[in-house]
Amino acid sequence: MSTSPLAHSPAAERNQGPILSVLQTVLGTTGNALEIASGTGQHAAHFSAALPGWRWQPTDLTDALFASIQGWCKQTGAVQVQPPLRLDVTQPQWPSEGPPFTAPFDLIYCANMIHIAPWECCTALMQGAARHLTPDGLLVTYGPYLEKDVHTAPGNLAFDASLRAQDSQWGIRALEDVAQEAHAAGLQLAQRHAMPANNLLLVWKRRR
């Protein structure tokens, strides 16, 4: 089945505004950003158009949605978005094809991947971020998490069950487990932002 040039995610449309509001408080006016698992490209287009001083590099596991990423960027007039690249976080070289990244990134952004991927992808994301971030760079992750001593919304419990029914390697992750992987890679949780629809935006930075 062919992919529409402008694939659309209702969730991305709903959350891009709240996510951008947080990004504008934690990012400087200029920088170099890498997006992991760009999907439809709606986030890349929306954020880059609103953050014109940032050079945005979208990536995804396959090239199935590359036309969509480029289409959304053209529609929003986002001119600082680079051509999308294939990137498998579990591979030792980022990106997975072509020459490896040589310049470090001030921001690595990853939304809604950790729970829709095997656990090894979370580990690899943290290790890759540690390799490719500038000394003061930030890793920003977004999505649902399970938190110790924090009530889990019924909607998230149902979502977790549906994910595990689709693939036993998927599921909403415990924040303390994600933090442990970050710590092992040399990162630490710097900020936690509660977001709409029972999601969290988490800001990670290098451990001092």
Report on the architecture of this protein.
This protein has 208 residues and is an alpha/beta fold. It has one domain: Rossmann fold. The protein has helices at 10-26, 42-50, 66-76, 119-132, 154-166, 175-184; strands at residues 31-36, 54-60, 85-86, 105-111, 133-143, 145-146, 173-174, 187-195, 199-206. The strands form two sheets. Strands 3-2-1-4-5-9-8 form a seven-stranded mixed beta sheet, sandwiched between helices. The radius of gyration is 16 Å and the shape is globular. The mean pLDDT is 96.
Short description:
The strands form two sheets. Strands 3-2-1-4-5-9-8 form a seven-stranded mixed β-sheet, with helices on both faces. It has a two-stranded parallel sheet with strand order 6-7.
Q: Main traits of this protein?
A:
208 residues, alpha/beta, Rossmann fold, seven-stranded mixed β-sheet, two-stranded parallel sheet, 6 helices, 9 strands, 36% helix, 26% strand, globular
Structurally, the number of domains stands at: 1
CATH class: Alpha Beta
β-strand percent reads 25-35%
CATH homologous superfamily label: Vaccinia Virus protein VP39
For the biggest sheet, the summary is: 7 strands, mixed
In one word, what is the shape?
Answer: globular
Topology:
Layout: H1 10-26, E1 31-36, H2 42-50, E2 54-60, H3 66-76, E3 85-86, E4 105-111, H4 119-132, E5 133-143, E6 145-146, H5 154-166, E7 173-174, H6 175-184, E8 187-195, E9 199-206
Parallel strand pairs: 1-2, 1-4, 2-3, 4-5, 6-7
Antiparallel strand pairs: 5-9, 8-9
